[in-house]
Design a protein that fits this description.
This protein is mainly α. The protein is 66% helix and 0% strand. The chain has helices at 17-27, 33-41, 45-54, 58-62, 68-86, 94-114, 131-140, 148-164, 168-186, 190-213, 218-224, 233-238, 247-250, 257-270, 274-288, 299-323, 328-334. Helix 2 runs antiparallel to helix 3 (45-54), helix 6 (94-114) packs parallel to helix 8 and helix 9 (168-186) packs antiparallel against helix 10 (190-213). The longest helix is centred in the C-terminal third of the chain and has 25 residues, at 299-323.
């Protein structure tokens, strides 16, 4: 399947003609490099916040800088509501919403077991299940009101933590449950299937890099892999027996060699995975741009939602960076590739 990652066909479904036309108009309003340059050039976070309002985020004009997370969440909620309303088959985009349900299970389990504050990690109105219901299910241990895949994953994560007392097991088990669900939910739809495979591959590679840096063995690495990727587990686990500097060469015939090569070079120089994560996001964005070739279909809707998520991530990177006094050069390095 690795070879097929760049050969994914578009489904061209006529029922999406109106939705696709509307999405094309919305794409023209996404932030481009010139917009981001304006935010980068802002003298401080307050000036950047005013610029956010001027490039199309009206909520920023009505709210204070310290409310930026609320504004960004409101924007995300509106995007999902709009795309759901536009879709002639809303069930086709349910899997995009459901990712947030799994995220909320993770957030509330960590709040309960590790004492973490859940408030900043909740995106109310974006998933398919009320975060409050997920919170109640986690806190009471009564999971019956949740969709089966969420309930089963939550229970598994709780048991795994109780047996290991390792916080990482919460992330691992929930990510595995999420990708098991995504595989099923996107089956039969090539563009979405390929997207999920990319996400899984990139997450697995990042997990293996972290495991290698921690001095972990194959057995540990096998436990943290998620399903659904295009790279065989055996091929990934074999990396654990080689020097991390050779990994890009080991995977030179896959689409990920450049991400690994540049990301690992930065890791060696800066002791940070920040560039690897940025390159991973850019890799996905460049794949999503294939949806621009679709005359009509579900693919432009998927791509628009995910492009908007990247845009919100970029705004968050800029605002947080400005608040923390990071240089323009550092922020520019961290910005993700825009869709337009």
């Amino acid at each position: 399947m690795v070879v097929e990652l760049w050969e994914t066909r578009l489904e061209q479904e006529g029922a999406y003609a109106f939705a696709t036309g509307r999405i094309r108009a919305l794409e023209a309003k996404l932030l481009n490099r010139a917009h981001y340059q304006r935010l980068l050039d802002a003298a401080d976070a307050s000036e950047a916040w005013r610029a956010v309002a001027e490039v199309g985020y009206s909520g920023a004009a009505e709210r204070k800088l310290d409310e930026y997370e609320d504004v960004l969440t409101d924007e995300l909620r509106e995007v999902y509501a709009l795309v759901t309303a536009l879709s002639p088959a809303p069930e086709r985009i349910l899997w995009l919403h459901r990712r947030y349900d799994f995220h909320h299970v993770k957030v509330y389990l960590k709040a309960k077991l590790l004492g973490e504050d859940p408030t900043e990690g909740v995106f109310d109105g974006v998933g398919t299940v009320s975060p409050k219901l997920i919170e109640v299910s986690v806190n009471t241990g009564v999971w019956g009101e949740l969709p089966p895949e969420l309930a089963e994953t939550g229970e598994r994560a709780l048991r795994a933590y109780e047996s290991t007392r390792q916080a990482q097991t919460i992330d691992t088990v929930i990510d595995q449950g999420l990708f098991t669900y995504l595989q099923t939910a996107t089956a039969g739809h090539p563009f979405a299937e390929t997207l999920v495979a990319m996400w899984a591959d990139l997450l697995n590679l990042k997990s293996l890099v972290r495991a290698k840096l921690m001095g972990k063995d194959r057995a540990f690495a096998q436990r943290v892999l998620v399903p659904g990727g295009s790279l065989d587990d055996s091929r990934l686990l074999a990396l654990m027996d080689t020097a991390i500097e050779t990994w890009a060469d080991e995977l030179r015939h896959t689409p990920y060699s450049d991400v690994l090569g540049r990301g690992l070079a930065s890791l060696a120089e800066r002791r940070s995975l920040a560039l690897f994560e940025k390159l991973s996001d850019d890799f996905v964005t460049n794949f999503l741009k294939r949806a621009k070739l679709a005359l009509y279909g579900a693919e432009p809707l998927y791509a628009y939602v995910l492009a908007k998520e990247t845009e919100l991530k970029n705004i968050r990177i800029l605002l947080v960076g400005k608040l923390n006094g990071l240089s323009k050069e550092i922020l520019e390095e961290r910005l993700r590739e825009p869709y337009v």
